[in-house]
Amino acid sequence: MGLLLRNQAKKRLAFRTGLVLLLFFTNPFLSNEAWLAWEPEAVLMKDVPTYDAGIVLTGVTEVNKSPHDRVHYQEGAERILDAIQLYKMGKLKKIIISGGSGAIKDVERTEASNLQQTALYASVPAADILLEERSRNTRENAQFTKELLQTQPQLRKLLLITSAFHMRRAQGCFEKVGLKPDTFPVDFQTHDRSFHLDDLLIPNPEALQQWSKLIHEWVGYVTYKLLGYS
């Protein structure tokens, strides 16, 4: 706006506003505070009771990356890693992995099968892993997982496992279809509150990226609410 406006007063105001916005959105302290307000609190693993199944949501692997003899993780590998740990601790009897692929073109493997591979390598028995491979988004995760659970009536007590920033939307979708799982948020984007000068005063481009990710999730959350998905 400062480059386009001709009025000098408005031009100066635009440049000053842009500078203030840049300093705000690149401030690590403010970014972390926003995330702390959005993400639910962590649950201690020792306090998790025993569940019939943990439902792990996908969206954390790259299905179009070669070679396909391994799993290419992006952020959020804790979704399956923490589920495996809970299983090993005896907190989960089964692991349900929900997610096909959001890609338009055909893929080599679904995301659910990618996470299954990691669980199998961690010595989780194949009989204790159930896959839902049709869903393309969070709403369908809930819908198709419910259909899967209708074939497994013994699985009643459920634990939903997904990234902390995604948990509000995911929980809403599962409750919308009539499932009432407890929640176990993972993959936290925050760190403990810090008043160090580096966080308070020095701009960081990573803070801008964190704001972008958070605003994206806010838009998704509101959109799902407006469409009645959650």
Describe what you observe in this structure.
This protein is an alpha/beta fold and about 230 residues long. Helices cover about 45% and strands about 15% of the residues. It has a 5-stranded parallel sheet, with helices on both faces. The relative contact order is 0.18.
Determine the structural class based on helices, strands and strand pairing.
alpha/beta
Shape: elongated
Helix share of residues?
40-55%
- Characterize the main sheet: 5 strands, parallel
What do the pLDDT scores average to?
93
Question: What is the first-to-last residue Cα distance?
Answer: 38 Å
**Rg, nearest Å:** 21 Å
- List the total number of helices: 8
> Roughly what fraction of the amino acids lie in strands?
5-15%
Spans of 5+ residues with little confidence (pLDDT < 50)? Answer: none
In N-to-C order, the SSE pattern is HHEHEHEHEHEHH
Order of the strands making up the biggest sheet: 3-2-1-4-5
How many beta-strand segments?
Answer: 5
Oligomer: single chain
Nutshell version of this structure?
The chain is an alpha/beta fold and about 230 residues long. It is built from eight helices and five strands.
